[in-house]
Amino acid sequence: MVEPLPITRRRFLSSHKSLVTVFWIAAFASLFIWQSRGRGGGGGGASLYRVNGSLSSVFWWTATTTTTSSDAGEFPRLRPVSFNLTDFGAVGDGVTVNTEAFERAVYAISKLSKKGGGQLNVPPGRWLTAPFNLTSFMTLFLAEDAEILAVQDETLWPLLPPLPSYGYGREHYGPRYGSFIHGQNLKDVVVTGNNGSVNGQGVYWWKKYRSKLLNHTRGPLVQIMWSSDAVFANITLRDSPFWTLHPYDCKNVTITNMTILAPVFEAPNTDGIDPDSC
Ligand SMILES: *[C@@H]1O[C@H](CO)[C@@H](O)[C@H](O)[C@H]1NC(C)=O
Ligand SMILES: *[C@@H]1O[C@H](CO)[C@@H](O)[C@H](O)[C@H]1NC(C)=O
Ligand SMILES: *[C@@H]1O[C@H](CO)[C@@H](O)[C@H](O)[C@H]1NC(C)=O
Ligand SMILES: *[C@@H]1O[C@H](CO)[C@@H](O)[C@H](O)[C@H]1NC(C)=O
Ligand SMILES: *[C@@H]1O[C@H](CO)[C@@H](O)[C@H](O)[C@H]1NC(C)=O
Ligand SMILES: *[C@@H]1O[C@H](CO)[C@@H](O)[C@H](O)[C@H]1NC(C)=O
Ligand SMILES: *[C@@H]1O[C@H](CO)[C@@H](O)[C@H](O)[C@H]1NC(C)=O
Ligand SMILES: *[C@@H]1O[C@H](CO)[C@@H](O)[C@H](O)[C@H]1NC(C)=O
User: Fold this and answer.
1) What is the pLDDT, as a whole number, of residue 69?
2) Which of 5, 130, 210, 268 has the fewest CB atoms within 10 Å, i.e. the most exposed one?
3) What is the atom index within ligand 3 of the atom nearest the CA of 65?
4) Distance CA 170, CA 191 (A)
5) What letters, b where the CB count within 10 A reaches 16 and e where it falls short, cover 21-43?
6) From residue 154, how far is each of 52, 110, 195, 244 by CA, in Å?
7) Is 215 close to ligand 6, i.e. is its CB under 6 Å away?
8) Membrane-spanning regions, if any (predicted)?
9) Rounded distance, CA 49 to CA 99, Å?
């Protein structure tokens, strides 16, 4: 059961002599306890949290915010130029691996930075892909019933240096698996939609982790590092290999109206949102 909760948004303004940094992380609510099927007993608990100023610690949350109604036209025009993922040869059959299509789309958008950026529309379908990077001035828009699915093969995950906040590596010493959707040193990135979803197919990772078959720290589902002006809204993130949404050392990140799902049991470390060193 998912408890519907009202949307809460707060803005916090802080200024300093030499720089004005407006930094707000807004909105998200609700730690909920989600009773998985067949585990008896009903009920979930829900409480409201507010995120503030400088957060260097890490949170263990499974968060969800849900609202009523849907549908606002399939693809609103949010950037001067927009692409359909299928323009890049993607096939949404849940089997074809579409990594190149995502990479080509992101590359095309990276060329539009001086023209207001670009929008990548993901139509209904199951779009399997290896991890890919976002670019600046990009809007990723997931239609209702669009699902971006992570390949279940860790050899396709790039290895990244350990996070500075876990200098030596967290689950294992040394490099870590990258995140499924990743971005670093970006500006103005939006990931939104009509409640389409990003599915990490984490069960693959959880099993390997528990069986000690992984040689590196698992990666988050979505991670942006050293970036500013990022918005995550109106979509569902589910079954992350590890933490779900992880902004690291970013400024002006807005997270609103997201649904984050993972089983309560046997899905280790699938925190909802982990603002880190922000
Ligand atoms: C949140 O930030 C505001 C402004 O910086 C501050 O006044 C307030 O005390 C902070 N609240 C908490 C709970 O840290
Ligand atoms: C979005 O999709 C998720 C998963 O299917 C569902 O739990 C949630 O209620 C949906 N939210 C809205 C606003 O329809
Ligand atoms: C939240 O997202 C859902 C699904 O994408 C949308 O129908 C709804 O209007 C959104 N609500 C707000 C307050 O943005
Ligand atoms: C995107 O491409 C698919 C497949 O060609 C098509 O069905 C869909 O209508 C296109 N959507 C837009 C908004 O162009
Ligand atoms: C994403 O960018 C980072 C930093 O440039 C790089 O290390 C990583 O390999 C890229 N990931 C993918 C999937 O291309
Ligand atoms: C982990 O390392 C061992 C020993 O080097 C190797 O045999 C195994 O294939 C590695 N597993 C993965 C998932 O990379
Ligand atoms: C924060 O980011 C949002 C979304 O990109 C942008 O509209 C807003 O101007 C930014 N705020 C500041 C103070 O830069
Ligand atoms: C989220 O959805 C609502 C309702 O459709 C819309 O007003 C809002 O602009 C959307 N937010 C983003 C960041 O796309």
Assistant:
1) 35
2) 210
3) 1
4) 27
5) eebbbbbbbbbbebbeeeeeeee
6) 35, 27, 27, 17
7) yes
8) 12-34
9) 36
Residue 144: both structure tokens together: 């209702």
DSSP state of 210: H
Our answer on whether the CB atom of 234 is closer than 6 Å to any ligand 8 atom is: yes
And the tokens for 203? Answer: 């069960």
| Number of residues in the chain | 278
Q: What are the residues facing 224 on neighbouring strands?
A: 183, 247
Task: Look up the pTM and report it.
Answer: 0.77
- Identify which of 22, 23, 52 to mutate to test ligand 1's pocket (most ligand atoms within 8 A of the CB): 52
- Decide if 147 contacts 261 (C-beta within 8 A): no
**β strands within 35-171, DSSP E:** 46-47, 81-84, 93-97, 118-122, 125-129, 132-133, 138-142, 146-150, 159-160
Average pLDDT over residues 17-32: 34
Residue 100, token pair as written in the block? 């190149």
Question: What local confidence, expressed as pLDDT, does residue 164 receive?
Answer: 75
158 CA → ligand 7 middle, Å? 30
